[in-house]
């Protein structure tokens, strides 16, 4: 049932029940005979119509002029004024009608009028209170829904920005390395162009996908390392120890590429002779564990604002956006010349999107 249809049903039924119960409560005062039954039904119809019409006008004004946005004091004062106005109108309608059916000689006119005001003020007050509280609750619920939508939108925007942050210097260096190979080793240069195009394609895909399979991510890493090996040649060595049952697990796209890029830039690149990168995956305690070891030394605290720190913070934010507090990320100095990074991702995670 739609909200508008329900509103009108509640309006008509509510006012009808009230006036019928009011009629039953005043049977002792009635002087009519059965020939006047139609007139009594007519008076009930008039009362129901008046109650529905007056409260509906209040509802229209309340919504059109956004009374729910008013300060509490103004809202209370205006609501009291509305209750008084509607009560006065209903009493004014019913005093002449009631005098035809009720023996007014049994009561003082002042008492009669006050009783009418009290009698019709109660349902109007209850109606206004219910409506205002309902409107307030609806406003709060809608505001909460909008807040959640806004947060989700902001998170998605942030995630897209973080996924898109591929280091442009790497692209320029890769192009320069490929250019140098064109005359020396055309076949190797051709392979380099293919690998670079694959890497750029993967970077573009990250705008549209929240996660990719670990197999796809490792292919991106292989292309990336192949391009870097054009620059570093034998100075860069890599090793993969991948558990087959981990290949289909979803991971954030380009996440490992960011960590591997940092490992090369701040580890292998600074090594005097050669450097290595090892990537290992396994499933343990219902988590995917990704372990990256590389030649290098962690920067001290005063240098954490450099690109190494940025890459790590980028990774942490992306993991938090996807998994909340259910992931683990740790990076530490394993020994004097080796840095070890560990990522633990829950297996009950968001599906590929």
Automatic annotation (TrEMBL):
Keyword terms, alphabetized: Coiled coil, Kinase, Membrane, Transferase, Transmembrane, Transmembrane helix
A GO CC annotation given for this chain: membrane
Domain of life of the organism encoding this protein: Bacteria
Annotated TM spans: 12-34, 40-62, 74-97, 117-137
Gene3D superfamilies from the UniProt entry: Histidine kinase-like ATPase, C-terminal domain
Domain Signal transduction histidine kinase internal region: 158-236
Any coiled-coil regions, as ranges: 140-167
GO molecular function, one term: phosphorelay sensor kinase activity
A Pfam family hit: His_kinase
Record bears the keyword Kinase: yes
Keyword Amino-acid biosynthesis: no
Name the UniProt record assigns to this protein: Histidine kinase
